[in-house]
Write a structure and sequence with these properties.
With 669 residues, this protein is an alpha/beta fold. Helix 6 (327-359) runs parallel beside helix 10. The chain has 16 helices and 17 strands. The chain has helices spanning 2-62, 66-74, 147-176, 178-197, 211-319, 327-359, 371-389, 407-423, 456-460, 482-492, 528-535, 550-561, 574-584, 600-609, 627-636, 648-665, and strands spanning 82-89, 94-99, 115-119, 122-131, 134-144, 367-370, 392-394, 402-405, 430-437, 442-449, 496-502, 506-514, 541-546, 566-571, 588-591, 618-622, 640-643. Strand 11 (496-502) and strand 12 (506-514) form a beta hairpin.
Length: 669
């Protein structure tokens, strides 16, 4: 019975709440609309009265006729809702007044501007009287305002209607709620019996065909499904009991496998301990490599600052007016600057080579190289140094062997070995170069010197960067990375390098490379005189230099000054350079790459696309000295690619070669 009253009360509460909300919204809307209409009606009526009084009293105000004004105001007695009225003159003073019976005589002392306001249960209105744009006075009206009374009346009516509506809703709900609650209560009774007895065959009755009936059907289906699953669960429990016995047998097998797993874990732990040991060694090696990197950077900083000190120091002396020097001293200082600059350039090149080799970005062009040509070139390049130091050099003659190598890098390797053999030799010593087959398709090149030799401990540290084996404080300049680069280059060319030394006798450095078939010799260089004669007999040769750096331009001007057959034009940017080339038709153009506005590469492309300048050879003269820059420049169509700082011999040879090319092609002079 408690359950029955509970669900019925809930249904009753829902119906009554809905009814109450609907009534409140409806009655509230009606009351609000009526009060708003009442307020507007009162305001409109008062406004009309004030407008009418103003028109009727305008003549009285004009002629100062107070009697006529009072008679006009007396007409307000036919409006019982008006409590009082008054006319004020243009100055705001009271001109005439009207007071309804039973009202206290209270008028504002002065007239106010146009407006309406509510003062409790009174409505106050001021309306100015204007005739032809002239202010004649002001109408004042005070009337009853029964808005609060109307609100009270409406609330009383609303309360009565609400109570009556709720009573009717309660009576209807009490009569009809069993239609909804009876099927639900029957479901509740069936559920209680199933819980108490465990009999899932019990079913609820269906009294209709609506949503509640579908709820009864769903409840009965749920009971049927539960009955089916209960039977299945009993069957499953019997299966579980049988499986439990099987699991006990499996547990014994698991115990055996656990013992085997423990053995394997022990073995893997041992392996991990070994791996951890190896990892610790790797960490130690990494720390050692980091320390070596710091030492390398420190040594590199020292090696870079040493020649810079000489360059900057002597340059300051030459530029200082407080430190006068003779011409001989200036030449000596310039010689020191030139020597230190070349040493600095060598150091930078070797550091770049080492960095490219270590990073794997060095590109080699392996091809058959004739050793005799390389040996002759190296002999000619180191002969002045050998003569200066009084060291006798012996090179093999008629070496017909060829190796698979990069020609430029092979010459760099031999020059490094020969330079070391000369620098660290004894006075009146000797350097012997030899080449011979070494079996298994290899050729061995060896450089033997008669120096002081190297101790075994020195040989162990021979190929370490910036390690000069105690010669850091000696008279000979060096970087300590030449042999490191040499070793890496040999290995990149699939070769080997080694050394043997004896204290007091000397050292032998050898390089082994793969042998290959002979190759053709390169064409000889063109002498300066022959190039000048071929270019334009009896006429000056015009040379255009496009360069934005005044110092670089001044240097080229000084070099060209020693060639009287050359006439130099200059341009500070690519645009002017193109215009000068079109106007003067020079035989040769020198082009910087990094130019303002138009780069040297773009300027060269524009020259090539113009029929007037397409035939003029263009030589790149730039500080972009990386091998990929050189390869890219040559691929784009530069006749030669020269890098800064300028090597005067290479510069002269490039100009001679270009002029010879112009003469052969029959270009304009």
């Amino acid at each position: 019975m408690i359950r029955l009253r509970s669900i019925r009360l809930k249904l009753l509460a829902v119906v009554l709440s809905t009814t109450l909300v609907a009534l409140l919204v409806s009655i509230g809307s009606i009351i609000a609309y009526d009060l708003r209409a009442y307020h507007r009606t009162v305001l409109a009526d008062m406004a009309s009265q004030s407008e009418l009084l103003g028109r009727m009293t305008s003549a009285a105000l004009t002629f100062d006729d107070r009697r006529l004004a009072r008679e006009n105001l007396a007409l307000l007695r036919i409006r019982p809702g008006v409590q009082a009225g008054a006319i004020y003159n243009a100055g705001g003073a009271l001109f005439a007044s009207y007071l309804a019976p039973g009202q206290a005589e209270a008028f504002p002392a002065r007239a106010e501007g146009d407006g309406v306001r509510v003062d409790g249960k009174r409505l106050l209105l001021f309306k100015r009287i204007v005739d032809n744009g002239e202010l004649l006075g002001t109408v004042y009206l005070r009337a009853d305002y029964q808005l609060a009374g109307r609100i009270g009346d409406y609330l009383g009516i609303a309360a009565g209607v609400t109570v009556l509506a709720l009573l009717l809703a309660w009576l209807v709900t009490r009569r009809l709620d069993y239609i909804i609650t009876r099927p639900i209560l029957d479901i509740a009774d069936a559920a209680r019996e199933v819980v108490e007895t465990g009999d899932y065959s019990r079913r609820a009755r269906k009294f209709s065909d609506d949503e509640v009936a579908r709820l009864v059907d769903s409840f009965n289906q749920m009971l049927a499904e539960t009955e089916h699953r209960t039977r299945a669960l009993e069957t499953s429990n019997r299966e579980i009991a049988r499986e439990a016995e099987q699991r006990s047998l499996a547990q014994a097998e698991v115990m055996r496998l656990n013992l085997d797993l423990e053995r394997r874990v022990h073995e893997r732990t041992t392996q991990l301990e070994v791996s951890n040991g190896e990892l610790a060694m790797a960490v130690a090696q990494a720390k050692s490599a980091n320390h070596a990197k710091s030492a390398f950077l420190s040594a590199m900083s020292h090696e870079l600052r040493t020649p810079l000190n000489a360059i900057l120091g002597f340059a300051q002396i030459l530029s200082s007016e407080r430190l006068p020097s003779t011409l001989a001293q200036k030449k000596e200082f310039a010689s020191h600057i030139l020597k230190s600059g070349r040493h600095l350039l060598t150091l930078i090149n070797e550091i770049l080579d080492l960095a490219k080799v270590e990073s794997g970005t060095l590109d080699l062009s392996l091809e058959p190289v004739a050793l005799q040509d390389i040996l002759d070139e190296c002999h000619g390049m180191v002969a002045p140094l050998a003569q200066q130091r009084g060291v006798r050099m012996l090179f093999p003659q008629g070496c017909a062997l060829n190796v698979q190598a990069d020609r430029t890098r092979l010459k760099q390797i031999l020059l490094n070995l020969l330079s070391n053999a000369l620098k660290y030799n004894r006075p009146a010593g000797s350097v012997v170069v030899d080449c011979a087959p070494d079996g298994a398709g290899a050729v061995r090149l060896s450089v033997r010197d008669s120096g002081v030799g190297l101790a075994p401990r020195q040989l162990e540290r021979l190929f370490q960067p910036f390690n000069r084996l105690g010669q850091e404080t000696g008279a000979e300049e060096g970087t300590g990375i030449g042999l490191v680069v040499t070793k890496r280059l040999v290995e990149l060319m699939d070769g080997r390098i080694g050394v043997s030394s004896e204290i007091g006798v000397g050292s032998v450095f050898w390089v082994e490379l793969r042998a290959t078939e002979p190759t053709a010799l390169a064409a000889p260089a063109v002498p300066a005189e022959e190039a000048a004669a071929l270019a334009a007999p009896g006429a000056p040769v015009t040379l255009l230099y496009v360069e934005d750096n005044p110092a670089n331009l001044r240097l080229v001007e000084e070099i060209v000054r020693f060639r009287p057959e050359l006439r130099l034009l200059s341009a500070p940017d690519g645009h002017l350079g193109i215009e000068l080339a079109r106007a003067h038709q020079p035989q040769l153009i020198l082009m910087d790459i990094n130019l303002p506005c138009v780069s040297g590469i773009d300027a060269m492309k524009l020259l090539r696309s113009d029929p007037l300048t397409a035939h003029i050879p263009v030589i790149a003269l730039t500080a972009n000295a990386m091998p990929r820059d050189v390869e890219r420049g040559m691929a784009l169509g530069f006749f030669h690619y020269l890098t800064k700082p300028i090597n005067i011999d290479e510069f002269t040879q490039a100009i001679n070669s270009a002029l010879a090319h112009v003469a052969e092609k029959g270009g304009p002079t």
